[in-house]
Amino acid sequence: MPNFGVDSIYCSAGVAFMRSVVKLIAGLCLLLTVVSAYIFATHHHSNSLSESQCTVCVVAHSASPVVAPTTPSAVPVVLRFIVVGEPITSEQRVIAFALSVRPPPVV
Predict the structure, then answer these.
(1) Residues 6+ apart with CB under 8 A from 6
(2) Is residue 1 in some structural domain?
(3) Does residue 3 lie within any of the structural domains?
(4) Residue 80 domain-assigned?
(5) How many domains does the chain have?
(6) Domain residues for 44?
(7) Where are the strands (E) in the chain, listed by range?
(8) Which of 18, 38, 15, 37 is nearest to 26 (CA)?
(9) What is d(CA 25, CA 21) in angstroms, rounded to the nearest whole number?
(10) Does residue 38 belong to any structural domain of this protein?
(11) Sign of torsion, CA 93 99 101 104?
(12) How would you label 75-92 residue by residue, b for 16+ Cβ within 10 Å and e otherwise?
């Protein structure tokens, strides 16, 4: 039986080193994201002039465009009547099923 996965028991030293490097890089990225979010949320300015030139403050205080909600108007729709045919018997269903199922291959 073929084994397509990586068995951690027979893991080589290079693969284990690569896993630890990837985990280290992922941890550093997560730490950088958390630290930058904290800095953006808690930074302050000594005067309003520096606040007006700060790109973080400009983006945070800019107003996003407000879209007026539109409600669709109700339009009456005339439905056509559906004509119901004769009920299908169980024999007709078996015949339709037998015609749509492929038989097993001949060996």
Answers:
(1) 15
(2) no
(3) no
(4) no
(5) 1
(6) 9-61
(7) none
(8) 18
(9) 6
(10) yes
(11) positive
(12) eeeeeeeeeeeeeeeeee
Nearest Cα to Cα of residue 58 among 67, 66, 49 = 49
Tens digit of pLDDT for each residue in 25-48? 999 999 999 998 898 888 888 777
Q: Length of the chain, please?
A: 107
What average pLDDT does range 42-71 have in this prediction? Answer: 76
57, 45 Cβ separation under 8 angstroms = yes
Q: Which residue is associated with the tokens 């002039």?
A: 49
User: What is d(CA 39, CA 34) in angstroms, rounded to the nearest whole number?
Assistant: 9
Highest mean pLDDT among 2-16, 23-37, 89-103: 23-37
CA distance 57 to 39: 12
The answer to whether the beta carbons of residues 45 and 51 sit under 8 Å apart is: yes
Answer yes or no: pTM beyond 0.85.
no
